[in-house]
Each structure stands twice: as C-alpha cells, then as structure tokens.
UniProtKB/TrEMBL annotation:
<keyword id="KW-0805">Transcription regulation</keyword>
<dbReference type="InterPro" id="IPR039420">
    <property type="entry name" value="WalR-like"/>
</dbReference>
<feature type="domain" description="OmpR/PhoB-type">
    <location>
        <begin position="128"/>
        <end position="229"/>
    </location>
</feature>
<keyword id="KW-0902">Two-component regulatory system</keyword>
<dbReference type="GO" id="GO:0045893">
    <property type="term" value="P:positive regulation of DNA-templated transcription"/>
</dbReference>
<dbReference type="GO" id="GO:0000156">
    <property type="term" value="F:phosphorelay response regulator activity"/>
</dbReference>
<dbReference type="GO" id="GO:0000987">
    <property type="term" value="F:cis-regulatory region sequence-specific DNA binding"/>
</dbReference>
<feature type="domain" description="Response regulatory">
    <location>
        <begin position="4"/>
        <end position="117"/>
    </location>
</feature>
<keyword id="KW-0963">Cytoplasm</keyword>
<protein>
    <recommendedName>
        <fullName>Stage 0 sporulation protein A homolog</fullName>
    </recommendedName>
</protein>
<dbReference type="InterPro" id="IPR036388">
    <property type="entry name" value="WH-like_DNA-bd_sf"/>
</dbReference>
<keyword id="KW-0597">Phosphoprotein</keyword>
<dbReference type="GO" id="GO:0032993">
    <property type="term" value="C:protein-DNA complex"/>
</dbReference>
<feature type="DNA-binding region" description="OmpR/PhoB-type">
    <location>
        <begin position="128"/>
        <end position="229"/>
    </location>
</feature>
<dbReference type="InterPro" id="IPR001867">
    <property type="entry name" value="OmpR/PhoB-type_DNA-bd"/>
</dbReference>
<dbReference type="GO" id="GO:0042802">
    <property type="term" value="F:identical protein binding"/>
</dbReference>
<dbReference type="Pfam" id="PF00486">
    <property type="entry name" value="Trans_reg_C"/>
</dbReference>
Length: 232
C-alpha cells in the first residue's frame, strides 16, 4: 500500500514541484493550499506524513502543528523559508518532526521522508489515531472542539479547552506549573502561576459539576496538576 503524504503549501510552483516529485517516487500525494484545507484533509484522509509550509495565508503553520498534535502523532516535516533558529525551535517544540529550509534539494526531501517512514514502521505497536478522547464520563471530540461530561456538552473558553486537551494528552502524568505555562502560553513566569490556578479552578468547576470532587483533575500542591486515568 502506498504511503500517503499531505503537502500543505500555498505557493503553486513549489506545491506542484513537491507533488510531482512524490508521485514520481510512487507516493500517494494529497494537496492542501491553506490551513483550513489542511485540517480537513488530516481529519478525513489521515495521511501517513505531512509536509507543511509555515507561511500559509489563513493559519500559521505552527498553529496547525499544535492542533494536529492534540490528537495525532503523524510525522510532520516543515518546509519553510523561515531560516531563523527561533522559527525552527518554535516549530519543533510545537511538535514538528523535521525542518527543511527553502530552497532545498529533492534528494534531501526524499531522505527526510524515508526517515519518517522508518520511524512509522519501527513503531509497529502504534494504534490507529483517534479523533476523540474518552476517560470515564469525560469525552473530548477533537474535530468539533467540544467537551462532554455524561454526554452533556460543557462550554469552555479557548484557554480552558487547551488546558483540558493538554491534560488529556498526558493523562495519568503530573504536569508541572512551568510545563503547562510553556505549553499553553509559550512562556513560564512564576508570577503567572496564580492566573493558571484561576483557569484550572474554573475548568475543574465546569467539568466536575455534579461529579465527586477531584473526580477528574488532581492538584499536586506546589507542583502542578494531573488528569486522573479512569477505567472506561
């Protein structure tokens, strides 16, 4: 079965060049011209690998990486004109697997793809990616961006949603205040911890309404928080 690769690139010439190269080398190529199309293709077609430009017209590529990483471990190879170290670090820290700076050679691109394929094949115990998270009575639908408790939709703010997704991604693990601040806001200052506590308190109040106190989120005083794993 052919490896499917999604190419997310708004520049038509580069997009055609990459897609033609992939097809010549017997890869199944999917195309997206912007971030919105990319997210639709990722959720509906579930490509094996994603080649992603960061400078898209509607959504910055880094934001796309972060969204995909909420529910998928699909290898992401960034191909971008951004050559500064800070841009590479931001993309990699957000979850990209590799970073190629434009202009690049065909051989180099194909080599990076082969590395991604070897990584996929090595992890032969990897289960098919799920577009939802279920933990007891808590359910997160990543495609719709909705959270449910006892099948009742819980209305969360964007920050609260990011927090519950981060906790779900690391269910059963204690996440430190510093780690959470960096993942959600990009920086971690000790002075921001009180604000984090407020957000966590409101999140807990919403998702644990009508549930036993401490049912989902556990506070580790002075350290951080943990989403308790519940046997479904």
């Amino acid at each position: 079965m052919k490896v499917s690769i999604l190419v997310v690139e708004d520049d038509k010439a580069i997009r055609n060049f990459i897609s033609a190269t992939l097809e010549v080398h017997s890869y199944n190529c999917l195309i997206a011209e912007n971030g919105e199309q990319a997210m639709l293709m990722v959720t509906s077609n579930k490509p094996d690998i994603i080649i992603l430009d960061l400078g898209l017209p509607d959504i910055d590529g880094v934001e796309i990486i972060k969204k995909i990483r909420l529910w998928s471990n699909c290898p992401i190879i960034v191909v971008s004109a951004r050559s500064e170290d800070k841009d590479k670090i931001e993309a990699l820290d957000s979850g990209a697997d590799d970073y190629l700076t434009k202009p690049f050679s065909v051989d180099e691109l194909l080599a990076r793809i082969r590395v991604a394929i070897r990584k996929m094949n090595y992890d032969n115990t990897r289960k098919e990616e799920s577009t939802e998270f279920i933990n007891g009575e808590l359910k997160i639908d990543y495609i719709s961006g909705c959270v449910f408790v006892k099948d009742e939709e819980i209305h969360l703010t964007p920050i609260e949603y990011k927090l519950i997704c981060l906790l779900a991604k690391n269910v059963g693990k204690v996440l430190t205040h510093t780690y959470i601040l960096k993942e959600i806001w990009g920086v971690a200052y000790e002075s921001d911890i009180p604000s984090l506590r407020v957000f966590m308190a409101t999140l807990r109040k919403k998702i644990e309404k009508n549930c036993e106190k401490g049912r989902f989120i556990q506070t580790h005083i002075g350290v951080g928080y943990r989403l308790i794993r519940i046997n479904n």
